Amino acid sequence: MTQPTSNATSEFLLVRVSDELYALPSTAVREVARWRSPTPVPGAPPVLQGIISQRGVVTPIVDLRLLLGLAANAPTRATRLIMMHHENCDFALLVDAVLDLTALPPSALAPTPTALEASRARLLSSVARHGDRPLGILSIAALVAALQETI
Amino acid sequence: MVQPSATIDTTPPLLLEVRTAIRCYLVPRSHVDYLVKRGAEPLPERDERGRPLVAHELGALLDPSDLGLPPRHHALMVTLRRRTVVLRVARIETLTAPGPLQPLGPFITPHLARPWLLGAVVVADMPILVLDLRRIAADVALGVV
């Protein structure tokens, strides 16, 4: 069996969150679905928009916009739910649009800038560029940890 | 046919489908002592055993915007040691064949403002929350809400 090497190109799902671009490691993405109205959960933090049934399984919707400290607009035709799986956690990430699936070599990834606000920097593993726009590479482990800690 | 002496009961608990002003919840039937229909008449101060009655609109306890019942509505009565709690709802229906109770998971359960939810059941591809009504009634009786 071939061991993955550190210089292997990885695939990412490019998403738009508010007016910013982010990339999710495709290994954690199970599927992409259209937004649908969730069942609200009274007393849950605002970042948890509610729950849906995804193929019969109760799945929480995490509003990535609020988690990143961005403005949450009303859902549009472009709004998507990205079904994620990380270790034992299944959840749906709400994003404003899914743009593309792209491959990024390690040479395209740069460390997270120190000037970036800490609440956002802790959710990123690195940064890159998509055309002339900055692209934040989300760390799913950090995202799950943030959700389990305080929200 | 001979039945085994000890079997595991996999039958889902009987759940009541409860409509509040704007939402729908499920409640274990075993959590409710009485179901009553109510009109516009005022609630008596005590139940038939002399315990004080404390009434609340269930929907508004869970979500302040879930307020406003029709004049003729239903009530779920939960009898506690020293009080009887009356939780008013718009309508009650019996759900005879619910699916399995699913947990809300590690992102939601530890972060809830109050531990009032037992989980959710998927009905017609929509999750419906299952309330811990006895816990809600206990908090109402204690005056913490």
UniProtKB/TrEMBL annotation, chain A:
Tell me which GO cellular component terms the UniProt record holds. cytosol
Superkingdom assignment: Bacteria
Domain CheW-like, by residue range, is: 9-149
PROSITE patterns the record matches: CHEW
Gene3D superfamilies reported for this sequence: CheA-289, Domain 4 (2.40.50.180), SH3 Domains (2.30.30.40)
The record's Gene Ontology biological-process terms are: chemotaxis; signal transduction
Which Pfam family is an annotated match for this chain, by its short name? CheW
Name this polypeptide is given: Purine-binding chemotaxis protein CheW
> What's the source species for this entry?
Candidatus Viridilinea halotolerans
UniProtKB/TrEMBL annotation, chain B:
Superkingdom of origin organism: Bacteria
Q: Which InterPro entries match?
A: CheW-like_dom_sf
GO BP terms, alphabetized: chemotaxis; signal transduction
Q: What is this protein called?
A: Chemotaxis protein CheW
